[in-house]
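Quick start: read one record
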Amino acid sequence: MSAPTGIAVSSELSTAFSDAVGSGNVRFLKISIRNESLVPDESIAPSGTLEEDLNQLSGLLEDNIPAYVLVRLDDPPSEWLAIYYVPDSAKVRDKMLYAATRTTLAKSLGSAHFTDSLFATSKDDISADAYAKHKQHLAAPKPMSAREKEMEAVKAAEREAGAGGYEGSRARQNHIGQGVGLKWHEEAENAVRELGLGDGSALVLTSIDPTTETLLLSSSAERSIDGLSSAIPPSEPSYAFFAWPHSITSPPRREIVFIYSCPSSSPVKHRMLYSSASRSVFEVAKNIISSSDSSSTVASRKIETSDPTELNESFLALELGLQNDPNAGTSTAPLPDAEKKAFARPKGPGRRR
C-alpha cells in the first residue's frame, strides 16, 4: 500500500514484522524511510519489562532524524504500540515525509496489531515515565462542553430524585435527602384535594417558583382528554394532575394521572429542579388524595413527556399499562406484569420521550 507520498512498505519490512509477531522475541522494531520505502532498521529483543526496556529506547534514536518504532506490549504480548518519533530539530522535509506516511505504515502491516500510538518530538517523550503519563491521559474522562456538563447535571438530578415527605401548607421546611421536598402553596394543595373528590374530567396544573422552591397552582378547570395536550405549557416544565374517567378497564374507573412535562427547550436549571422534585410531588399528591376519602384512584405510574402534544387517550392508556382488546366487545383490566412483557403491543415510532 502506498502513501500519498508514494512511499510503501518494503517486502523486507513485511517479513521482519511478521517474524516479530510470530516469534515473540522482538521488543522494538525500528523503521526508517530510505529510497522511498519503509524498511526495517534495527530490532531489539526484550531484556526486562516494557517500562524497563523503554528507558533504553533512546539509544536507538538520533536527535535530528525521525523514525518509527514498533513496540511489543507485555499485556497482552500480541498487541503493539506504534511510536512516531519526529524530533523538533529534524529537517522540515523529513517531518512532512514521516507525518504523511505513518497511516500507511499501520494499515500495511495490519492496523489490528496496533492498539495504541504515541507521538514523540524528543527522546524524553518515550521514557517509561512519559508512557505512564500517556496512559493516564487516555484513561482520564474526556473534557465535556458546557452543554454536555449541563445535561450531565440534569441526569444526575434525575438519578437522585426520590420521594420526599408530605409537608402540606402548614409545614414550610424543605427535606434535604431523596429528591427535593417542595413546599406546597395552600391553593395547590386544596386544588389537588378537590380534584380527588370530584367525579368528572378535570385538570389541575401546577408550577414551581424557583426562588422559594414552592409548588404553586397555575390553573384548575374541567378538561376533557381531547383538550389535555393544548392545556399543558409547550415550552416550560410543569406538573399536571389529570382526573380521567374512562371505561378502558372493567369496571370503569376515574383515575388521577400525574403528568410531568419537561419540553426540551426548557432552561436547564428549571429542568434540573423539576426533575429532582417530580417523585416527591407525586408522592405528596397521593397522600393528599388518599387522606381525603376520595373514590378516585391515583394511577400507579407517572407520565413523563418532553412533547405535550402527544398527550391523548392512546398515549395515556399505553403509558399506564392499560389494555383494550379491539376485537372484543368488552374492556379488559390491566394485565399482570408478566403478561404485559409477553404480549404488550410494541410502541409506535415517532414519540419523543
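The longest helix spans residues 268-290.
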